[in-house]
Amino acid sequence: FDTNDYAVDNVYGIPLVNKKIPGLMDENNDAIMIEFIRLRAKMYALRVNGKKDTKKVKGVKSNVVARTITFDDYTRCLNEEIEMTRQQSCIRSKLHQVYT
């Protein structure tokens, strides 16, 4: 477990350990997670006490997630079983041909 970002006198009494491979990492750095919503694999949002909401969606650009998707959208999709879509543009190349 990577506990390098924990306080020296943490409430759990866990010793500080640097990043080890293979290992797990605490994304919240000893902060308390208030709410966690997971809609599918690699698509989740979490709310941590004293921090900004974290939203992750694989395959969607980070600026699209930050600007157009809210924590409440995750909650609505979970509770009301609705599907939401967002537009995104990207420039890619395939076999040296650039397209959007």
TrEMBL record:
GO biological process assignments: DNA biosynthetic process
Protein's UniProt name: Uncharacterized protein
Native organism: Camponotus floridanus (Florida carpenter ant)
